[in-house]
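ugh ok so i messed up the first submission bc i forgot one of the chains. this is the corrected input, ALL of the components this time, i swear. 506 residues overall. if the numbers dont match what u have on ur side tell me asap before i send this to the collaborators (the ones from the other lab, u know who)
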Amino acid sequence: MLKHERQLLIQKLVNQRGAASVNEIGEALSVSPMTVRRDLEVLDTHHALLRVHGGAQSLTMKALPELSRIQKRNLNVSEKDEVAQIAASLIQPGDIVYLGPGTTNELIAAHLLVGDVRMITNSLPVFESFQERADQFQLQLIGGSYRARSGAFIGSLANDVLSHLRTTKAFISVNGVKDNAISNANPEEGQTQRIALDNTAHRYVVADLSKLNKQDFYSFYDLSQVDRLITNPAINRNDVATYSKYTTVMTTA
Amino acid sequence: MLKHERQLLIQKLVNQRGAASVNEIGEALSVSPMTVRRDLEVLDTHHALLRVHGGAQSLTMKALPELSRIQKRNLNVSEKDEVAQIAASLIQPGDIVYLGPGTTNELIAAHLLVGDVRMITNSLPVFESFQERADQFQLQLIGGSYRARSGAFIGSLANDVLSHLRTTKAFISVNGVKDNAISNANPEEGQTQRIALDNTAHRYVVADLSKLNKQDFYSFYDLSQVDRLITNPAINRNDVATYSKYTTVMTTA
DNA sequence: TCATAAATGTTCAACTTTGTTCACGTGCAC
DNA sequence: GTGCACGTGAACAAAGTTGAACATTTATGA
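and heres the new structure output, hopefully the right one now
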């Protein structure tokens, strides 16, 4: 058997079984463990598999996402994380969901338990947060010009595409909620957000408590048009009460 | 038996079996191993098969396992780099450039010296290769459904957007160039490539030498419609000469 | 923490494959 | 016939591949 041929067989074997030990491979192909080790080293440098102590592991099988999610949940549950968890609980099978840019939306992927959901976003970090679970969701990124500060794609290209898409739910993360208006720092990004809100059935504004009663540079939507304002429990509930006249306020409390 | 006749038989044998050793071939054709070696050397320089220690291996795509993007990136790095350098030299200030997915296109950023260029791509790796130089270029990513294997955004969303954009130059990286057709592995990705080619003023096909005379699953464009085929210098120029009747072939030689 | 076993990398010798060189034979032109 | 070009196979030195021995590192459990 040719060396290269043998290496292909090893790669195939490891991919089939997810992982294999050096001795297993050696027996299967009737070569010494030393030869297997040398082959594994070559295959590893070619990124055909992952060399681990005792054998090798397939790179195509992503075996660990569940663990990392549980780990994440047990780790410091921040305020943003609480808000993301509420948002995730609103998503149901069959939904077509738009997620805007923002760190809170990046956390939704970790909390989303249901499948059969179509996710649409114009945020590269949000997109990446879903990527390792690409097999469980239909995932679409809205392209356009890139704004590095927020990781969002904006501009006419993004707006054009968004204006042709109808979603069932849109989650918009904002910098400020004040006087019946929601706002953020960048006009172009705000325009894109507005288009997303205009083309969805259910509008959810996501904002941790620190954003309430703040106003940022560009106001882009009317709070009364929003279905729900999702925020976390107030130590002082006055802020939340202020906004409940415009919309339903959801908190973890 | 004529020498040429025998070499064709060897090529056929290797393609049928995926791989064959020098001794196997020698026995099958009743010639000495030395003769087989000399034949294999000729066939290898003509890219009819791949010479490996102990024998030879078929180059037909079905015989090889599907390679991941990372594996591909490590393949023929210097050759791809040469090709990328030629491509970069064709880009001028004022151009609106489309770069398709492909490891060769990922290398263009590093070689691009001029500014005032608008870059449009549907490939996340290509996009990332330009990101650190975002201040020097206008950079736009075409979104859509994501194909993890190639890092490309495809599907109707991507096609819609692309069909509305007019570029001055498009660089398309392909898996195969054969019989006046260019091809790659994925039909959806091929469709997106075709749209990009349909909407540009200057069409450049980028392919290192290993792609010539290969055919992959999905043919998506006519080579005669292409302005230039960019490849690297052949040790044996026969392959390149074959394609120069359809298009201008550029090499580093 | 330490002891123990398992796995690893290094080195070397045996073996295989390779390329170089040369000799031989065939076919063809003169 | 002679000379020449060419393809072929054999001999041999060089290079590559393999498996075993052994020292080192890593994992695991007491």
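quick check: The longest strand of chain A covers residues 167-173. that seems consistent at least. Residues 3, 31-35, 38, 53-54 of chain A lie near DNA strand D (CB under 10 Å from a C1').
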